[in-house]
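Hi there,

I know you've been waiting on this one. I reran it after we fixed the sequence typo, so this is the corrected version. Both the input and the resulting structure follow.
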Amino acid sequence: MAMGMMENLGSVSTLWSALVSVLLFWPVVNNHVPAGLRQWLSTMVDKLTSYLSPYLHVTISEYGHQRFRRSDFFLAVEAYLSHACARRARKLRADLGKDARTVQITVDDHQEVTDSFRGATIWWYPSKKPPRTNVISFYPRDDDARFYRLVFHRRHRDLVLDAYLPHVLAEGRAVTIRNRQRRLFTNNAPGASTSYYSRKSVWSHVPFEHPATFDTLAMEPADKDAILDDLTAFRDSKDYYAKVGKAWKRGYLLHGPPGTGKSTMIAAMANFLDYDVYDLELTAVKTNTDLRKLYIETTGKSIIVIEDIDCSVDLTAKRSNDKKKKKSSDEDDDDKPKLPTEQEKDEASKVTLSGLLNFIDGLWSACGGERIIIFTTNHKEKLDPALIRRGRMDVHIEMSYCRFEAFKVLAKNYLGVEQHEMFVEIRRLLEEIDMSPADVAENLMPKASKGKKRDPDACLAGLIEALNKAKVEAAEAAKAKEEEEAAAAKAKEEEEAAKAKAAKEKEKDDEAAGTKHEELFVLDDRRDHICQDRARSGSPSL
């Protein structure tokens, strides 16, 4: 048995000696052997090395099969190593990522990083592909593409492929989400110029830095708590949505007068959920197909917003009919040259109500998950009922005028005041007067007057003055409206009286005309009788 072991060791040492010899003489072979033979020898050396080595290799390329977009897996590995393994590396690279909040520390190229997972030791090797020489490329990313090489023992194959790599992907995505700078997107208009690398993108973005939160949102506390509970339940209900067979999305309709905080509510939602915001401008979308493309290009953990939906495009049948009537009435003017603005209207968005409904809850809406769709409007009654029914707009939130509880939030935010003797008067006035939170906040701003900022007393006094002024204006407007209605009613009565008088005079004239006609008829009849009598007596006729 000992002799057998010695023979095996001898054969292994012989193979290693041969391999070392090949590696030593490989530069000479590379320079003097033809390309075909050199490739065959290289393949054989790789096979021999893989046969003798107990370690397996996995390569994760930066771009993979997508030439213009970095691999999601590569980015996840980069984030995972920077978070979990960077402290064990000797050479690091610092960079401010495109969408990062802080400086990102990553492992530098050609540095070995060791990781452990369930008792298995794993080695990572960040590397960079050497540039090709004497090649002119229109795709510069191909020349400096980077990759990660993962090395592990063959006995851990199933553990690494089935458990470790999914673990790296999940942890890397979590780190990316925690470190990323959230973004505010807007859709590109057709034909708009974009950069070389983003020319295929249908969205452009800037960092989302709106400071609004639910703590600073002027709203009734009970309504605010209900919205927070609903958002939290949605965020944590991925498995529930899958269980009931629904796409993981939710719709919110924000409606109310201007200045009541609809846009601020959207920003507070995004900050609470840590979501990106996609501001969809429907007038820049040409067709329903383009609308679907925009939806597909959105990511999870995002809010898709269409503001002033009633003013964006013609969506109701009533408006379509009005458009057709206008078109038919303008057929006689076809020979007249159109102004550029009219031509632009002819080329306007052709998004239909059906296309928008499919965008909200059709088959395409199930592409991806964890999305919130928000519509805003100042006139809820103008929207088609099919557009805002439950299942499409699941939650209807009325953004109303400022009341006392909302005012207290604004007073705390703007003035740092939670209690004040003027609050009693302000509360009474806010119950009588409709004033938007935006107008209340404007009156609470500590504006500078003659080089000196107003103190809270002056700001609150100014708000009371504004409320009293609004009260007087409202009373005057109501009085003017009553007078206008009274004048309209009086004018209507006078018009009806004039019509009645005209009808009575006409009736009188008709009676007079009838009487005169009867008198003439009697005279004619009498003349006929006289003529007949004279004819019988032989006298000459009249």
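Quick highlight: Confidence is low (pLDDT under 50) at residues 1-10, 138-143, 195-199, 331-346.

Best,
R. S.
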